[in-house]
Specification:
alpha+beta; Chondroitinase Ac, Chain A, domain 3; ten-stranded antiparallel beta sheet; four-stranded antiparallel beta sheet; 16 strands; transmembrane; membrane; DUF1191; transmembrane helix
Length: 301
Amino acid sequence: MGFRSFPLLLIIITSFLLLIHADQPSDPRLIDHLVRDHSFQCYTNHAKTALLYPVSLPSNLSGVTAHTARYRSGSLRRYGAQIQEFHLFPGTDVRPYVHRLILVLETWYHPWSSLYNISGFRLLSPILGILAYDATNRSELDIFVDKRPISIDFTNISKTPSSNGIRPLCAYFDMHGNLSVYDPSQASLSVCEGFRQGHYALLMESLVVPRKKKEEGGGGDGDASEKRWKFVVGSSVVGGLLVAVLLGLLCVALVQGKKKTKMAEMERRAYELEALQIAMVGHFMAPTAGGTRTMPTIEND
């Protein structure tokens, strides 16, 4: 009974670990897709154009907020749009062309902001994302600007450094997670400009802290962000190895169980053959009688 319950226990443990591992998305693109799917649930037959709707996200995305708005491509190109921290000026277009599009705005707070590798920098703001989708089939669209770039204003959501000589920098994360760092707008140190869809943030270079100060309790937000990133990667690796080990043990248990079942069947058949005294007759197996029968004798008159 104990042997039979062992594979079942392994299956339960493996399934539980897989569910835990899959419950927390670790890929930025996966988060984008989850937010997109929940954004489209906001639209019904009575949804209005150019009206901003909050997106209800599941509990496993706590720390991520999203809003969505629907536009006509022609109206967006002629008039632009002002949506929260994003300002799209006239001339903004999407490719390929669609009649109606849906803009999805994302705000990533801790710990999701640590999914992007910003080694050597420290975040001064949440990560803001702007993505465009076809309103009919959810396919992703590319945002293009004609003259004026997209403006992203971090004034109300950033921590501008107060130290003299420290300038904040703009960060752009493309659709593959690659980081580009550049200077902010000339109008304000808290305003970034962009030309494509993706994710933006305000950051600064991490200060080089002497080893002695670090041991005394330094570290800073940059080190904490890097530690969180290493923790996420390490947890994924350890979880994968643990699942692989459990699956290996499960396979070994199943093979051993099959062998034991086969051996038991062979022993049972051998016992039955011995009890019936089976012998080969030509190419067939047939039962034979023992030598205890009364031998025939010739009767004398």
